[in-house]
Specification:
Layout lengths: L7 H12 L52 E5 L3 E3 L2 E10 L5 E4 L3 E5 L9 E4 L14 E4 L4 E9 L14 E5 L7 E3 L12 E4 L3 E2 L3
Parallel strand pairs: 6-11
Antiparallel strand pairs: 1-3, 2-3, 3-8, 4-7, 5-9, 8-11, 8-12, 9-10
Length: about 210
């Protein structure tokens, strides 16, 4: 696929993605030039001559309100556009009580306004769509409240504004292949049209 150089507008998109605090150290293609451990069992105070059994282990805190049974919540950020190139941050947050472990790329399916699956090839990495810093698959451990992020990129293709034909209205995202996916509706949808290709970066821990 021929990558069309993107210049001034892409610099703005790169800044916007970086401003989300994704911690990727990611920059969109330099086309602008051009270039939580459970508490241990504790023994209750003993009384002379009377054996005392250990107290029960305290229960783990309940998941946060609105947290899925999987213990993770997926959300998308604003789609940044620059002369045909699109970039969207995707955040996975550990909203449960235990640790969550990731190692690799999101598992993604794109569906249209009728929820029919679109013919979209999901890439591990962002080439040949563009060049974006990608940490590659590596172990990521999220304690309760911590998040990881991936960036999705694609090239704009004409979308019918009336029927939304060609728009990825619903995006199913899972932490990894085989894991339960969550359906999100990115604002404006993915105007991926007939380009049929979506790039992703590997999950990387968000450093506050």
């Amino acid at each position: 696929m021929t990558v069309i150089p993107v210049r001034h507008g892409l610099t703005l998109a790169a800044a916007a993605v970086l401003a989300t605090g994704c911690g990727l150290g990611a920059e969109l293609d330099r086309e602008a030039d051009p270039e939580r451990t459970a508490a241990g069992v504790s023994a209750a105070p003993s009384v002379t001559g009377v054996p005392v059994a250990p107290t029960a282990e305290p229960p783990l805190p309940a998941p946060a309100e609105g947290c899925p049974a999987t213990g993770v919540k997926v959300g998308t950020g604003m789609v940044n556009a620059a002369m045909g190139l699109r970039a969207m941050p995707v955040t996975l947050t550990n909203c449960g009580a235990g640790e969550q472990r990731l190692n690799g790329y999101p598992d993604v399916r794109v569906r249209d306004v009728n929820r029919a699956r679109m013919d979209v090839t999901v890439l591990k990495g962002t080439g040949p769509i563009t060049t974006l810093d990608d940490p590659g698959a590596h172990p990521v451990t999220l304690k309760p409240g911590e998040s990881a992020r991936s960036v999705f990129v694609w090239r704009y293709s004409a979308v019918d504004a009336a029927t939304l034909r060609g728009s990825g209205v619903y995006v199913e995202i899972g932490p990894a292949p085989g894991a339960p996916r969550q359906t999100v509706e990115p604002e404006g949808g993915l105007d991926i049209g007939d380009t049929g290709m979506l790039g992703t970066t590997a999950w990387q821990k968000v450093v506050e």
